[in-house]
Amino acid sequence: MTQPIDTTIYTTITAAIQAEAQRILSGGDVTAVIGYAAARRKGSVQPIVITDATAADKLIFTPASLNNLALYLTKAKKDIPKKGKIGIIVKGCDLKAIIGLIGESQLKREDLYLIGVPCVGVLASAVQPATTLTSETIAPKCTECNAHLPTGCDYVPDVTLPVEPLQAGKYAAEIARLEALTPAERWAYWKEQFAKCIKCYACRQVCPFCFCEQCLCDRNKPQMVESTPRPAGNTAWHIVRAMHLAGRCSGCAECERVCPMDIPLNLLNRKMAQELKELYDYEAGFEVNDKGPLASYEEKDDQSFIK
């Protein structure tokens, strides 16, 4: 049964972030604010960088605010003024990415002014952005989110999130389904998914953690991963990427959203996150760590895998 989700607080949040952005830009606290603005198509939203307080009224926050804006602090950072503190509007999943990037010495907390937004969820797709946010249209990641209310920000609008009924988590259910299969059946499933890949690298381009100026997988002397969209190269690319994000992924699911072939990339990332939680009691994005569990060693670590 389709159930509408109360998003009336988004109007209050929009007014609050406009006022705060105007205040910090007028006072010289920041040199720019990264946020969301209305796009051409009715109901759609796009990222925006404003540097003038008079442009603060362009900022909005709606269920169509899908993008993880942390990307503009890493890959798209050339679009941001190089001097002065940067303000940025963050949902819970965006904040997790920023915390991870601080831990990897890609960002400094003192260089950022974080405007956290309480979020009941965003739409699964921007194809029909005017669609009402319901239990059917909400992004699957939002049904399993444990950070609807960002903490540790410099400013958070004073609003109370509506209490929503618990929803079935798509990823948890799908992981359980795959776990019930035989290893051969699981391998066949992922081979079928990876075979769809056209090597457009949209998943890499939208990920805040893919911040290397030259990706290892682009090198051809020696060639680490085959660059053509063939089965062996596709499988290597996606497995390497999943391992690369293990213990780092914030669960923003932008990779899955932008994939033109509908490969369930976030399903793979959530499986890796589940493994890290079970093995190391570790979740990415809740505190600054210079090393995740796969980049550090402790004597109490499970060594049963060593034969």
Structure described in brief:
This protein is α/β, with parallel strands linked by helices.
Structural account:
Helix content is 30%, strand content 7%. It is built from eight helices and four strands, in the order αβββαβαααααα. Helix 6 (231-245) crosses helix 8 (265-280). By secondary structure, it is an alpha/beta fold. The longest helix has 18 residues, at 9-26. Strand 3 (86-90), helix 2 and strand 4 form a beta-alpha-beta unit. The protein has helices at residues 9-26, 92-103, 170-179, 183-194, 202-205, 231-245, 254-258, 265-280, and strands spanning 32-38, 45-50, 86-90, 112-116. The protein folds into two domains: 9-144, no CATH class; 170-295, no CATH class. A four-stranded mixed beta sheet has the order 2-1-3-4.
Q: What pattern of helices and strands is seen along the backbone?
A: HEEEHEHHHHHH
% residues in beta strands: 5-15%
Helix content: 25-40%
Number of domains: 2
Which of globular, elongated, flat, extended, rod-shaped describes the shape?
globular
Number of beta-strand segments: 4
For the termini, the CA-CA separation is 50 Å
Q: Which residues sit in consecutive blocks of at least 5 with pLDDT less than 50?
A: none
Structural class, by secondary structure, is alpha/beta
Spatial extent as radius of gyration: 20 Å
Strand line-up across the major sheet: 2-1-3-4
Task: Give the biggest sheet.
Answer: 4 strands, mixed
Count up the helices.
8
Overall mean pLDDT? 87
